[in-house]
Design a protein that fits this description.
- This is Isoprenyl transferase.
- By secondary structure, the protein is an alpha/beta fold.
- The protein has one domain: Undecaprenyl pyrophosphate synthetase, CATH 3.40.1180.10.
- The protein contains nine helices and six strands.
- It has a six-stranded parallel sheet, with helices on both faces.
- Helix 2 packs across helix 3 (33-54), helix 3 runs parallel beside helix 4 (73-96) and helix 4 (73-96) packs parallel to helix 5.
- The longest helix has 24 residues, at 73-96.
- It is globular, with a radius of gyration of 19 Å.
- The structure holds 3-methylbut-3-enyl trihydrogen diphosphate (IPE) (2 copies) and magnesium ion (MG).
- Residues 18-20, 62-65, 67-68, 192, 194, 196 line the site of one 3-methylbut-3-enyl trihydrogen diphosphate (IPE).
């Protein structure tokens, strides 16, 4: 198989990314943390373009966690402003590139102007059929799982669902990601090797890729390196290697 063929084979359908390290990147340059967040936007653009170009169908970006609300107010405000400014600036280009924008997380917790801008981007791109760009905003997996559990408990209580009907499929349908397949690959930048409350249910069998590269230094080449690493892994799902590749 040629390298090009290999590159186009086995592209993960869904890639999830914990974009981490903006603050440290800025600090290394003697700058304010917000400077790092601004630089990180360029990485977002490059990764979105690269993911779309190689045929990834879903790209989930962890942009702001529930826990991030606990950061100093000035940083939280700057991040929300940056979010609004970025989506405003990028939405036409995303639309032109057939990208569909989605948001997962506690939407109501976002500032009204941010909700409005995100809603407009989602509406504008709703019919697009290319890359699904899923922004995790005010998102945490525990929040999501507890919310799903409450909804299911309510359904059992009002008799529309029985306890033994609670399958993986039913549970999945109550998650924010009900419309998306689970990620096959999760990338985290900045050298931290933790999940930080991201997609705990959906990442059950994902391949995890950790890189010391700080998010503002992460771009096309680094994304392709992560994809290539993924392509060289054997996903066994509890089976043996011989079952996966009988000729071995
Ligand atoms: C990731 O970079 C961006 C957000 C969490 C919003 P950080 O801001 O966490 O940067 P570090 O980890 O402090 O370097
Ligand atoms: C995770 O990064 C959240 C996002 C990238 C949005 P953090 O920097 O907030 O995670 P911790 O605090 O290092 O776990
Ligand atoms: Mg961080």
């Amino acid at each position: 198989m040629s390298n090009t063929e290999k590159e186009h084979k086995n592209i993960p359908e869904h890639v999830a990314v914990i974009m981490d390290g903006n603050g440290r990147w800025a600090k290394e340059r003697g700058q304010d943390r917000v400077y790092g967040h601004h630089a990180g936007v360029l990485s977002v653009r490059e990764v979105v373009n690269t993911a779309g170009a190689i045929g990834v169908k879903y790209l989930t970006l962890y942009a702001f966690s529930t826990e991030n609300w606990n950061r100093p107010k000035a940083e939280v405000d700057a991040l929300m402003e940056l979010l609004v400014a970025t989506i405003r600036k990028e939405v036409d280009e995303l639309h032109k590139n057939n990208v569909r924008v989605h948001v997962i997380g506690d939407f109501d917790a976002l500032p009204p102007v941010c909700q409005k801008e995100m809603q407009e981007a989602m509406d504008m791109t709703a019919a697009n059929t290319g890359l699904n760009l899923i922004l995790a905003l005010s998102y945490s997996a525990k929040w999501e799982i507890l919310r799903a559990t409450r909804q299911i408990a309510e359904a059992v209580k009002n008799g529309s669902l029985s306890a033994d009907e609670i399958t993986d499929e039913v549970f999945h349908s109550h998650l924010c990601t009900s419309r998306f397949p689970d990620p096959e690959l999760m990338i985290r930048t900045s050298g931290e090797t933790r999940i930080s409350n991201f997609l705990l249910y959906q990442l059950a069998y994902a391949e995890l890729y950790f890189t010391p590269t700080l998010w503002p230094d992460f771009g096309k080449d680094q994304f392709l390196a992560a994809i290539s690493d993924y392509q060289n892994r054997e996903r066994r799902f509890g089976m043996t290697s011989e079952q996966i590749q009988p000729s071995k």
